[in-house]
Design brief:
With 458 residues, this protein is α/β, with parallel strands linked by helices. The chain has 18 helices and 20 strands.
């Protein structure tokens, strides 16, 4: 789709969140006739409504917003809107084109795209890639779920530029093009309420490589079964990394060093020591190696990579140090919304007495394995909150009986008790909920901020 194809077209933007507003802005500037469809009222949409109206959009809001989709020529759906909605299927059968902001960006972007997907670690990896690439011979932009709105870059981008994108399964599920460099992080079951089963979730993720060409790259770990399966679907070249195995080509860990064996000759070079990296936790080493791989393919020298790695600061709400009280540290990992992420957070601090705060709206993943992993990593106490507290309590009692658990009705009381459990021996309190937040908080960012506010008041 080109800019000229949008002028004068009857276009619907389905969902007026951050990405939807970016779409409205762009489409109105291209001369499209834009109608915003959203189940919320104008008052609920707040400033987004005011901005969209200012851009020139019309509106159809409330419970009947999906009626009559067939009158539009193109419908742009937001990531939160399922393709499987009956109204969307009906519109598609009637000949309406279904698209999205990301699909449009891929059509219009002249620059090289580096895209990152996986169940967890996408934002950290994308941010680290941007950090390693910026300041080089060509311009680099961080866009998408973090960074700048992608469509706002159209018109500024040149062929020699690079755009780094974080892509979720919701954005990937109908993507018709793939990036020049695809970073495939570990994929475990998540969002099964939307995708129905793991196979469908995995199929959505695979669109990141499905349309690649022979000169494109897949960067992938060999440490996970799901990641190794993606190798069979690779259409281009592959850059492999591993935390567990010495490789003849690629990146790996050996005796505390990050080692790169060149892709052409296999020459061994040490990038840096693991101990010099600011990101903590074994799971973050997966993110680090994938980001280094992108930098290597982009022509960044190993010396520059090592220097920049030491200067990188972890993202807010991802294993973020919130406060130290005496010998006790408080870690905010509010964006750890899967059991796998919570287990990884526990592992990152396995050398200390650990109390975890877990719970919220369960959205999939292996809770049994999480409980067993937490017991193995020395977690002594788990404060359970939110809608899933009873479910988690049953699983811990059955599969990790040595880990003490207690349910709490308030966030503050859970944090205080977690602190009391580890303050004597100088331990760590970790908020890594393994769940979504919307039963108690507006979003995971608000949950993390409240955690930090409470911790500062102790």
């Amino acid at each position: 789709m080109t800019n000229s194809e949008l002028k004068g077209r009857r276009v619907a933007v389905l969902g007026l969140g951050k990405e939807g507003l970016d779409l409205v802005r762009f489409l109105c500037r291209q001369g499209a006739s834009v109608t915003v469809l959203d189940q919320n009222t104008a008052a609920q949409l707040g400033n987004n409504y005011k901005q969209a109206k200012k851009f020139g959009a019309k509106f159809k809001l409330g419970d009947m917003h999906l009626d009559g989709l067939e009158i539009f020529e193109i419908i742009f759906r937001s990531p939160g809107v399922p393709l499987q909605l009956p109204e969307i299927k009906k519109a598609k059968r009637a000949g309406v084109k279904i698209s999205s902001a990301i699909k449009l960006f891929f059509d219009l972007c002249p620059a090289k795209i580096v895209a990152v997907t996986g169940t967890k670690g996408k934002s950290t990896t994308a941010s680290l890639i941007y950090h390693l690439l910026k300041g080089g011979r060509s311009r680099v932009f961080l866009a998408g779920n973090i960074g700048k709105p992608p469509l706002a870059l159209i018109g500024r981008l040149q062929r020699k530029d690079t755009v780094v994108l974080e892509l979720s399964s919701f954005q990937l599920e109908d993507l018709h093009k793939s990036p020049q460099i695809a970073v495939w992080l570990n994929v475990v079951p998540e969002h099964l309420d939307r995708h129905k089963n793991f196979s469908s979730y995995l199929a959505a993720k695979k669109n990141i490589i499905k349309h690649q060409r022979g000169q494109d790259w897949l960067i992938v770990s060999r440490d996970f079964a799901g990641s190794r399966k993606s190798l069979k679907d690779a259409k281009g070249k592959v850059f492999i990394y591993s935390l567990n195995k010495v490789l003849k080509r690629g990146l790996y860990i050996a005796k505390g060093d990050i080692v790169y064996r060149t892709l052409d000759s296999g020459k061994r070079q040490v990038v840096t020591k693991v101990s010099d990296i600011t990101l903590k936790g074994k799971h973050n080493l997966q993110n680090v190696l994938s980001a280094i791989a992108v930098a290597v393919l982009s022509g960044v020298s190993l010396k520059q990579i090592a220097r920049k790695l030491t200067a990188f600061k972890p993202l807010e709400h991802r294993l973020e140090l919130a406060r130290e009280i005496g010998d006790v540290i408080f870690i905010n990992d509010s964006l750890g919304t899967t059991p796998e992420a919570a287990a990884a957070a526990a592992q990152a601090f396995a050398y200390r007495d650990t109390a975890m705060i877990v719970g919220g709206v369960y959205k999939g993943g292996d809770i049994v394995k999480m409980a067993k992993d937490m017991a193995k990593h020395g977690v002594k106490f788990v404060a359970l909150i939110g809608k899933s507290a009873s479910k988690f309590e049953r699983i811990f009692k059955r599969h990790a009986p040595d880990v003490a658990t207690k349910k709490f009705s308030t966030f503050k009381s859970a944090i205080k008790e977690a602190y009391n459990q580890v303050r004597t021996n100088g331990g760590v309190v970790i908020l890594s909920p393994a769940c979504a937040s919307f039963d108690m908080f507006k979003n995971a960012y608000k949950r993390g901020k409240e955690f930090k506010d409470i911790v500062k008041s102790l």
